[in-house]
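Example for tutorial group B:
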């Protein structure tokens, strides 16, 4: 009888060792895998945070932070001014603009044959000079909001703008006035110590091609200045483009001076009638007053609610006083006729015939001098 078999014992030992090794591997796996996963998450988080910090600096910090001011070049092409609204104090434009600067952080080493490559970025993903048009009252951007960057880090934003801008009109000399129509560009982020506009900045426009009726236009040179909301407030870099608009007064000669002359001619003819023709004289004199009031009101409705008199207002006001004076003379002459003083009434009427046109010519000379 065999009591001990060595081969069987070795087999059992081997099986036992294999089972122990498997358990150790499983324990080691359960221990190490979560640890490795934790390390991976930590590494990814740190890498993401570092990338986010780099991106924040790329967007939030100007390229020469702490150094020389950024130099911004703007090419502004004014394609058209199609309307100038006196009452609303607005003018409408169609324009094309290019904004250029250099950001060395966006430069890359060009591989042979790729020197002219241009990359496109959303403007929210890179640093921009933070420009706004402060007198914008409804401009619309017609092109995508992207910046094109070459391998040297030269960035350019191209945009076409269409819409209305505000303008403060000075109408004291209306209708012989000239107005400055400006496009005021301001960096809302940087003062002049950190951002300047290049001397290569350019304003391009063909005033003869503008479609706004009733105006002649003349280009102005770009002007750099400091924009402040208050006298002691923080200043921001400002660049102004614009034109001078000269009003063509011919329209107002036809719509104001000519009708006014006809009304005053009617008032003047009253004094060529005999003072004894009372109903006709009084009817004509009264009609001129109402006609003059209607003309003055229609003129004022075309202008903003200003608190001063224009040249046109003074012309209407003095003409109205002349018509009222004519009406008063007519009333006095009628009274004298009723009092058997017809000779005196005729004498006053004769004087008025010659004085009336002379006074009207004086009114024109005083109020409608271009």
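The residue assignment follows.
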């Amino acid at each position: 009888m065999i009591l001990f078999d060595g081969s069987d014992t070795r087999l059992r030992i081997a099986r036992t060792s294999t089972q122990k090794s498997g358990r150790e591997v499983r324990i080691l796996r359960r221990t190490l895998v979560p640890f490795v996963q934790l390390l991976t998450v930590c590494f990814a988080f740190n890498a993401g945070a570092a990338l986010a910090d780099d991106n924040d600096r790329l967007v939030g910090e100007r390229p020469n932070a702490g150094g020389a001011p950024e130099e911004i070049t703007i090419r502004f092409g004014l394609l058209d001014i199609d309307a100038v609204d006196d009452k609303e104090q607005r003018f409408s434009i169609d324009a094309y603009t290019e904004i250029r600067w250099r950001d060395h952080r966006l430069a890359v080493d060009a591989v042979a044959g790729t020197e002219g490559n241009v990359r496109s970025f959303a403007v929210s993903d890179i640093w921009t000079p933070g420009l706004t048009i402060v007198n914008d009252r409804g401009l619309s951007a017609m092109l995508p909001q992207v910046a094109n960057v070459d391998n040297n880090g030269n960035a350019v934003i191209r945009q076409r703008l269409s819409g209305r801008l505000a303008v403060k009109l000075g109408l004291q000399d209306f209708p012989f006035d000239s107005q400055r129509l400006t496009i005021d560009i301001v960096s809302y982020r940087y003062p002049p110590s950190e951002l300047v506009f290049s001397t290569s900045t350019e304003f391009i426009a063909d005033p003869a091609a503008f479609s706004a009726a009733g105006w002649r236009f003349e280009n102005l040179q770009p002007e750099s200045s400091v924009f402040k909301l208050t006298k002691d407030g923080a200043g921001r870099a400002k660049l102004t483009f614009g034109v001078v608009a000269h009003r063509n007064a011919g329209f107002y000669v036809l719509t104001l001076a000519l009708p006014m002359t006809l009304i005053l001619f009617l008032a003047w003819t009253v004094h060529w009638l005999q003072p004894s023709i009372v109903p006709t004289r009084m009817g004509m004199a009264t009609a001129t007053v109402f006609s003059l009031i209607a003309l003055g009101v229609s003129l004022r409705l075309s202008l903003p609610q200003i608190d001063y008199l224009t040249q046109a207002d003074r012309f209407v006001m003095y003409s109205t006083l002349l018509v009222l004076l004519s009406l008063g003379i007519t009333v006095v002459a009628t009274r004298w006729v009723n009092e058997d003083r017809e000779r005196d009434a005729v004498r006053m009427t004769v004087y008025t015939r010659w004085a009336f046109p002379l006074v009207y010519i004086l009114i024109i000379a005083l109020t409608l001098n271009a």
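Residues 1-60 form one domain. Compare this with the pattern of hydrophobic and polar residues in the output above.
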